[in-house]
């Protein structure tokens, strides 16, 4: 019997509650499909930061880097730690450190879930967003400069390339804040190839998102690489879309989309909109994938500290993320069974959390899905 | 009787058709409310560019800068001119040249219009987005650099400040495209003050949009200035919102919003989403405002070259933009009358273009609204 060692970062707020349900369901699937999971608990998050001053240490990063998949709850509690510190210090840190260049976001309206959109059903909302996850305006290069002149040195080191900006900045403004986004040919190429391959396994339609009419430099390169890569996939239908238009089509014509490939920042925005049209953050899982390294699976929702300990929030996003994790580990049957069990729970509609109009608790939903996994098996 | 001289750039695709209706309605309002308009036609757009190689000349910019308000149709025709050239060379050029730092976008669902959102009515969708219009990632600073080292000099000159970046870039990447965004204290301050003042005239609630947890430098400054400005407006209720969450709330809780102040790029995205929830681009006007200089009013929709000459598209966004223009010129009564006439046309629901399920032509709708303006008057 296979045994997987999976590090777990439950994190802040409702993180521990939803992760508990995710583990429950994965373990149920393990019983049916014949595998064990050893959970390796890690303490990172707001409390750990307050207690130790540490976000995540280089040592811990190395340690976690020995595993293929991390299960993550949610990070952040603005009552304890200023916005940005844990996001940049733990979440983005891991995405970059493990070079998880693929952010996978299934946008799928499951039967039994209501979308806020008129006249749209589960047949209309079923696409995959592939968000580039390591470049663009997320690289953390920038600074604030006051009247006068200043030199700044900014460096970006990636597995696939490095770039150094030596800046000499002169301004008569009281203060400016600047931010540099970077798109590389290597970085664009690998995400395009992943997306085209994925489109081939689906309905063979890939839509690219950019704003190349305004940010002509970084997204001009993005477009060039898309166009070049497309030549190797003549069987895949393609189109370019400005990000502003994409938000409109998600609402008006979600059925247009099959696979959507997007730069990091626009991806952040449109995947939240995607979560909303599939019924809300409580139903939206995400994967941060490095096919050859350490990946990480998480619900899209935040830590919602207000709800901590109330056994109220929806664990389905986390459970679904658990299915993505199992799929990544090669347990495809178990992964499919979990998604089916989620669908069955939603279709029955009896055991639901408040966001879906129900009165059940977080743990009730987890138990119900675990039960269905076993019954199905 | 007052006479206003108003430069008109009808532009490409359906631009001339919708502008014709806008002029028709403004002239009708002039008859009723006692003013004349002298239209000064300007040729800028795709055909002009193809014929002359000119986007808009410094001389023309100076000439147009003598007037208080420009009426703009739409620019761009990708069959004739590559994406980006006219957008950057004419539209953004004017926004920057005239320092139109306020982009005003009423998001208002008018009675008689269907929103794609379930359970939302005109009572729920009625807010104003104030998009900063001259900074952020729209400043056009960036470059593409191939393996090796390169020096680049980028300069930004604004009425309110200047900044010079001398860059020394070294990379081992095959090619990178980089883009620099800039937020200044002066630029943030004036848009915050405008927005707080506007909130005071409305429901006294101002929501700020940013992504300060990731792009900590430019949006950190944005947040600081918002917080400082808020101290002078203790009667206005405020909140910060990450842009990804904003797209969700526009769909789920649009009634939450009163005035929304947003950096340029996020503003581009969320105002298109706003247009969609108010019934589509055919109904969404925009103003590019410099309170002390030359402003510009335009429909949000593109030039839709495919529809050119078909007398099909909805002119309401353009007519509404005309009302914003009149309001800006001080003709508040006439402006209000036009908006009321638009509402009456939509409520009656008899003369509608195809996007609203009707069969009327562009010019029918313009004539109907002009007629109502006169009847009302
Ligand atoms: C928490 C935040 C840093 C993060 C992001 O912006 O990527 C989140 O919004 C996401 O989409 O995973
Ligand atoms: C045409 C384009 C350059 C423009 C923008 O990005 O600002 C448009 O989308 C808008 O919102 O006015």
UniProtKB/TrEMBL annotation, chains A, B:
Annotated PROSITE patterns: IDH_IMDH
Keyword vocabulary terms for this entry: Manganese, Metal-binding, NAD, Oxidoreductase
PANTHER family (alphabetical): D-MALATE DEHYDROGENASE [DECARBOXYLATING]
Superkingdom per UniProt: Archaea
EC numbers: 1.1.1.85
Cofactor(s) listed in the protein's UniProt record: Mn(2+); Mg(2+)
Domain Isopropylmalate dehydrogenase-like per the UniProt entry, residue ranges: 5-369
InterPro entries: ICDH/IPMDH, IsoCit/isopropylmalate_DH_CS, IsoPropMal-DH-like_dom
GO MF terms, alphabetically ordered: 3-isopropylmalate dehydrogenase activity; magnesium ion binding; NAD binding
Pfam families: Iso_dh
Name of this protein: 3-isopropylmalate dehydrogenase
């Amino acid at each position: 019997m296979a045994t997987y060692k999976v590090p777990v970062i439950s994190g802040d707020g409702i993180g521990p509650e939803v992760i508990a349900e995710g583990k429950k369901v994965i373990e149920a699937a393990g019983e049916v499909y014949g595998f064990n999971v050893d959970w390796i608990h890690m303490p990172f998050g707001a409390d750990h930061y307050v207690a130790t001053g540490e976000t995540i240490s280089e040592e811990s990063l190395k340690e976690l880097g020995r595993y293929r998949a991390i299960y993550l709850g949610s990070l952040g509690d603005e009552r304890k730690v200023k916005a940005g510190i844990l996001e940049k210090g733990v979440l983005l840190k891991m995405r970059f450190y493990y070079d998880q260049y693929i952010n996978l976001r299934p946008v799928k309206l499951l039967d039994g879930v209501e979308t806020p959109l008129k006249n749209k059903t589960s047949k209309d909302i079923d696409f995959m967003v592939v968000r580039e996850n390591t470049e663009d305006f997320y690289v953390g290069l920038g600074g604030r400069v006051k009247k006068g002149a200043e030199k700044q040195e900014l460096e970006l080191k990636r597995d696939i390339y490095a770039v150094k900006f030596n800046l000499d900045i002169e301004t008569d403004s009281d203060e400016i804040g600047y931010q540099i986004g970077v798109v590389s040919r290597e970085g664009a190429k690998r995400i395009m190839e992943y997306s085209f391959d994925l489109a081939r396994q689906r309905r063979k339609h890939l839509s690219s998102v950019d704003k190349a009419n305004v940010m002509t430099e970084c997204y001009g390169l993005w477009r060039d690489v898309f166009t070049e890569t497309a030549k190797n996939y003549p069987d895949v239908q393609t189109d370019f879309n400005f990000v502003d238009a994409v938000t409109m089509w998600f609402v008006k014509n979600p059925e247009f989309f099959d696979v959507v490939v997007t730069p990091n920042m626009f991806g952040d925005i449109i995947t939240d909109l995607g979560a909303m049209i599939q019924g809300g953050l409580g139903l939206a899982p995400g994967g941060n994938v490095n096919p050859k390294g350490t990946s990480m699976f998480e619900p899209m929702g935040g830590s919602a500290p207000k709800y901590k300990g109330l056994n109220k929030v929806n664990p389905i996003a986390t459970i679904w993320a658990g299915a993505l994790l199992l799929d990544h580990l090669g347990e495809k049957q178990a992964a499919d069974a979990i998604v089916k069990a989620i669908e069955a729970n939603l279709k029955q509609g009896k055991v639901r959390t408040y966001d879906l109009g129900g009165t059940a608790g977080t743990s009730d939903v987890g138990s119900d899905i675990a039960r269905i996994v076993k019954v199905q098996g």
